[in-house]
Amino acid sequence: MSGSIVLWGAFSVRALRGQWALHELQLEYAYRPIQSRSGETLTKEYTEHNPKQKIPCLQDGDFTLTESAAIVHYLFNTYGEDKDVFLPKSPADKGRADEWSYFAMMELDAVLYTIRRHKFLSEIYGEAPVAVASAAEYCQKQITAVAPAIAQADPYIFGDNISAADILLSTTLDFAERYEVELPQSCRSYRDQAHARPAFLAAKVRNEDLNAN
């Protein structure tokens, strides 16, 4: 359905993930650069697409999908077969890809959102210094635990070709560092390698362009 794709959401790591996947897969898409907490997610038009009133949201023809991890995996699984990306085929590889994806989303991203809400958006959500400190400590522990495994990425989790799990993991590691969680050297090197890719750089520019269409 390439050519009928629309991606809603800008200026956030979660919107960036979908854009990165689209650029890796060389897919054309219409861009709707709406932002969180701007009122743009509360409109009748957008709420019809995503009643949760969150970004991102992907439309592919008549199919609509929300949640950044689901969007990235959907795009890779739907359009990645003839592209220079890794698609897991064996049950073991699928399980490993799921493990890294769920780890990034549940053990890191969801916890980091506590820091975002109660430290960097405290004027909206209120201060919660104990919760923020606990979340940072937990993220640090989890990242340190997987650092040896990340050090074995060569250069990505499954070798030469980037996977959906790499997009989710590398963006979440960057999210952690921006929110003052220290990354071990292996994690920084892995993140930097992934974020030097032309597709990431192109997606990042577009994600930050609120005048794009």
Explained architecture:
With 213 residues, the chain is an alpha+beta fold. Helices cover 58% and strands 7% of the residues. A 4-stranded mixed sheet has the order 2-1-3-4, with helices on one face. Helix 1 links the parallel strand 1 (5-8) and strand 2. The longest helix has 30 residues, at 91-120. It is globular.
Topology overview:
Layout: E1 5-8, H1 13-24, E2 30-32, H2 44-49, E3 57-60, E4 63-66, H3 68-79, H4 91-120, H5 122-125, H6 129-151, H7 164-178, H8 185-195, H9 198-207
The gist of it:
The chain is an alpha+beta fold. It is 58% helix and 7% strand.
Global outline: globular
**What about the largest sheet?**
4 strands, mixed
Strand order of the largest sheet: 2-1-3-4
Proportion of residues in β-strands: 5-15%
Number of alpha- plus pi-helical segments: 9
Name some characteristics of this structure.
single chain; 213 residues; alpha+beta; four-stranded mixed beta sheet; 9 helices; 4 strands; 7% strand; globular
